[in-house]
Amino acid sequence: RVSSSGSHRSQPARTPEDETRFNEKDDAPLIGPNPTRSIGGGMVALELSGSGDLGGENSWVLDDDRWRWRHTVSYWVCVSFILGSLLFVSGCAFWYKHYVYASRTRALVTYPFLLGSVLFTLGAYLGMFQAINVGVRGRSTLWRWAPEKDGFLGYFYYLVGAAVFNISCAEPLAVFDDWPVWVKREMAWGAAEVGSVFFVLGAWKEVTHNGCLDVRKCYENGKMRTVVFWLSWNNLSGGCWFFLAACAGRFDPESKGWVYTTYLIGSINFFIASSMMLFMWKGEQYGLGFIPSINRLVPLRPVTSGGRVEDSSKGYRKVSVVHFFFLQTYIALTGASFIDFCFATQRFSVYSKYHGFAHFHEAIASLMGVFMAVGLLFMASILHHTPRIHPFDKLLWWANVYVFVKLIQILVSIFEYYTVALETEEKEASAAMGNTTFAPPPMV
Fold it and tell me: What percent of the chain has pLDDT over 70?
């Protein structure tokens, strides 16, 4: 919502045709003549305040004091995709090792894949939700078929692909153990093939929508040096690698080269692409790669608590590498905390010396780690810059240091659990086979 402080010149009345055109067209001006209108239908992270003459070029300034959930939709699109791709990268990395106990596979591979797929689904839906509601005032619309909207079809393809891919990720769960072999095969690889096809379609739509298909032309006109070019092509590359892995898995499900490695490369592509999306969000390009109509914001200037406009050199639109790094750290902490929780909820042989209360303590402590990490992500949804008021600026750095150290601690714990469990299992397997000699397995 755009508020004003001071007198405003009268605005000409608009006809019903003008109202319809303003609400529905994606290329409608982001700031209209109506002083109560929000830019992009409210689909941005920060609202605006008008001061003085509405017609002046310097009359619009950022207002940090207002927050609405719908204004952060593009942020959650980025976070969902980044966290989902990180969990896929982690699952693929742990997939290379054969585990004696199924609990290891569940904690390190199955559950990260499943949550990662769900997060991809959530991110795709939120992107489609944003596309539907761009340029629309009032109550948000949860769903409607709107192929004329920028980004709708691309996000829709991603949503269908991720929803189908959930079936593939759910197939290893114990609830499906008794299903026929051919059904489980189609769940695992048929669903992955269909989902990957829709990933490719969504990425192809993004590449063509941004005019990045002709690589030579993009090189000549300089578009190859833009974030959106590499964002689009990394998504397309990730979709292609996923499709290749799904097709290969039908014939050799345990191929480390054709299945594990191709999934890993595709996951890294998706991580790079989603990180670029977050970089665009930090630069206040809230339309990301699909909705350029809300990326064309007018230059904005920060406001002091007294209403005085500060020097524009503060640069809200300039992305701080440090802030971007710590925001990625928040997301990585969330993923690591989830894997730590998966470890704590599995009754590993290394926990046999623990009594029930100690195991319960481990599970609750790791669950609170997830809870804290998600809370930090909510906090980060409104922090584009270090607060200018003491002591909030120092508290932000206090939180950053805590997050960084906590992430290192959890990663070390996961590595320790991983290596101790493997060594214990190798010893047990060797003893069962009557092998008295034991060589520690290589660390992965």
Answer: 71
Which amino acid, one-letter code, is at 308?
A: R
Alpha helices (H) along 224-294: 227-251, 262-282
Using alpha carbons only, give the angle 44, 152, 375 rounded to the nearest 5 degrees.
Answer: 45
DSSP 301: B
pTM to 2 decimal places = 0.78
Q: Residue 335 in contact with residue 86, Cβ under 8 Å?
A: yes
CA angle 290, 294, 299 (to 5 degrees): 135
- Over its C-alpha atoms, the chain yields an Rg (Å, rounded) of 25
**Cβ(261)–Cβ(286) below 8 Å:** no
Residues composing the chain: 444
* Cβ 365 vs Cβ 413: under 8 Å: no
The beta strand positions in 6-156, using DSSP E, are: 47-51, 60-63
Q: Which tens digits make up the pLDDT trace of 119-128?
A: 999 999 999 9
36, with CB counted inside 10 A (0-12, 13-18, 19+), is: exposed
Model pLDDT for residues 74-86, shown as the tens digit of each residue: 999 999 999 999 9
Q: CB-based contacts of 5: which residues, under 8 Å, 6+ apart?
A: 49, 50, 51, 307
Beta bridge pairs of residue 5: 51
The b/e string for 202-230 (b: 16+ C-beta within 10 A; e otherwise) is bbbbbbebbebeeeeebeeeebeeebbbe
